[in-house]
Design brief:
The chain is α+β, with helices and mostly antiparallel strands. It folds into 2 domains: about 5-55, no CATH class; about 60-150, no CATH class. About 40% of the residues lie in helices and about 15% in strands. It has 7 helices and 6 strands. The chain has helices spanning about 60-65, 70-75, 85-95, 100-115, 115-130, 135-140, 140-150; strands spanning about 5-10, 10-15, 25-30, 30-35, 40-45, 55. The strands form 2 sheets. It has a 3-stranded mixed sheet, with no helix packed on it. A 3-stranded antiparallel sheet has the order 3-4-5, with no helix packed on it. β1 and β2 (about 10-15) form a beta hairpin. The chain is elongated and about 50 Å long.
């Protein structure tokens, strides 16, 4: 795996999760390739039969954005990336704010733990209330409800006196 979180196969490069850092196995099929590390899938793409192409999955690079939020605007994996409707509207609104990229990063990161549908619902709820800040979206009901299921310290009844 390269420093750019890609693996080379058959004259093309395919992205893998940025957390992968050691050797990987590539399983090639007629229509797709699956990249595994220690038995865990770290990348899956439709197979490309061109030459010298780079195939990105932007979700593979979300964790990198925590260190380099400007990559959201200028990074090759994110060029032309279309998010689900409400998330895309939030992203467009945040582009007009000085720290918009920094605000968008935790929203995208939340997808990795809470799931795309929960974050999309949280963005939709915020937009319905005329808000697009990350602080509001990340504490809104859909995203917070999923976090509470995973975090026993924030479950109903948890805490002092229970």
């Amino acid at each position: 795996m390269s420093k750019t979180c890609t693996v080379r196969f058959d004259n093309n490069k395919y992205s893998v999760l940025s957390s992968a850092g050691r050797p990987v196995e590539i399983h090639a099929y007629a229509d797709r390739i699956i990249i595994r590390q220690d038995g865990v899938v770290v990348g899956e793409h439709a197979r490309c039969f061109g030459r010298n192409e780079v195939i990105y999955d932007p979700w593979h690079y979300v964790l990198v954005l925590a260190r380099k939020p400007g990559g959201l605007r200028n990074g090759a994996p994110f060029l032309g990336w279309v998010l689900p409707s409400a998330m895309e509207k939030v992203r467009r609104k945040l582009k007009a704010v000085d720290d918009g990229d920094r605000q968008m990063v935790p929203i995208l990161t939340c997808v990795l733990t809470d799931g795309l549908s929960a974050v999309e619902a949280a963005c939709q709820e915020a937009l319905e209330h005329g808000v697009s800040s990350a602080a509001v979206i990340l504490t809104s009901w859909p995203a917070a409800a999923i976090r509470r299921r995973h975090d026993p310290f924030h479950s109903p009844g948890a805490g002092a006196g229970s």
